[in-house]
């Protein structure tokens, strides 16, 4: 029977199924075939006589049915799973310790073809994207999540409407491919890397997040499934997102043992088979050039920790901006500013407007590593005792401020200040250029009780607390309105970086800076307030002017309002110091002070961000 090696994994041919795997020199290798549900292999086929090119060996087997058979490999003395397996069976419920029987976990076949309904879906540009990042299990496991099939892809589908109503345009999934989640037990090398086998005396922990090299990167995680058909269930999730007008993005973590060619195979597979719209590549050994220059991925979002766009594109602007930088630079700048640290204005100006022509920027104030946004304003110190490492794990410095009391409190003044600070934080995020990312539950004040490294907390601490959605409705509504406001004004999410000059001869620059005097904004190290004015005409949609007064000082400050064109007036839109009442509704500027002919200023309270809109007054 003719065999044409070169494509790892299983390929269906007109002669049967071709199996291809990499075998180290000098090792004996066998293909193990099992009947579905049976404990032992029913057939062992030697790979020694197979067709070989390099270290890849292929054999073709006829007379097998994908519904009736499963398979593994034995290389040397180790039974392993195919690194290219598209489906795993026998992994058991999430967090269950793996059996020492190496034949329990097996590789399956892609059994049927999914009929996609998303032919007309078009992903958003990076400038128009609002990312919502979550972990499949943690997001719906809590008892008040109002999801029937908790912790699964199907359960996650029930939250799509919620995310769409919030204003998110893309769902970013923490590792949702099959990975080994039990840490501290004996490894059988089942993930296709026998060298990872070890014996540990430490108590077993559950790796909820999946940032590990022990993974089957081609297989949707079976324990995240409500059915026994992971391929179909994940396909339906992506299809449902697309029908709702949302993108599906995925995170992949590599530990340095995966070659660039295999990474390409992985991304190609998820792109072609599951219609995934983008990938966040994490870990080590990631060759950006190979991925960025790949023709198939040229319009697929690709996020890396650091990106040198000038080097990647050799000084040329790409036809489509799909590559973005994803790191903590924005987070630390904005957290410092939020807690009134000095000498932050220049960095704030840089981070707020940063939008390189070659690549995008992913901005966030919370991610899986570190405090949630609620904990950022509730704790000065990490509280990771429940992780079993005597509070030694996790980041030592969180750039946080507890607003006067450590942890949960019933003090009204502290709670009000925390709410105000969270509103400030979301405006710092959503009024910046680049692509904003919101971490699961932050929009309604989800807390992990001060744990800044909840990777092993498969419990109420690590799960998103949907009780907070009920108790923090004011914050949720504020975030929802802030997202809508960002979307309405194109000047707040431009395709290119704002220039700060009047390059269209409109009489105003696209972006200008102001302080106690209009058109003059000192940035001395002791200052913590700054005004920004946007000329909406540069956005070519909404023509109004926007003035954002950032006062992150503990004292009130006056902001001079620049003069507007004839017939236009300033109106308040929102102030984070308001404790109750509607937000993002226009009100007359009643508190404006006259400062000479035609000059006005407004006093902005301490730790407050205020937005004003300048528009023609209607009769």
TrEMBL record:
GO BP terms: carbohydrate metabolic process
Name of the protein: Glycogen operon protein GlgX
Protein family according to the UniProt entry: Belongs to the glycosyl hydrolase 13 family.
PANTHER family: GLYCOGEN DEBRANCHING ENZYME
Glycosyl hydrolase family 13 catalytic domain mapped to chain residues: 129-486
Source organism of this protein record: Blautia pseudococcoides
Family annotation (SMART domains): Aamy
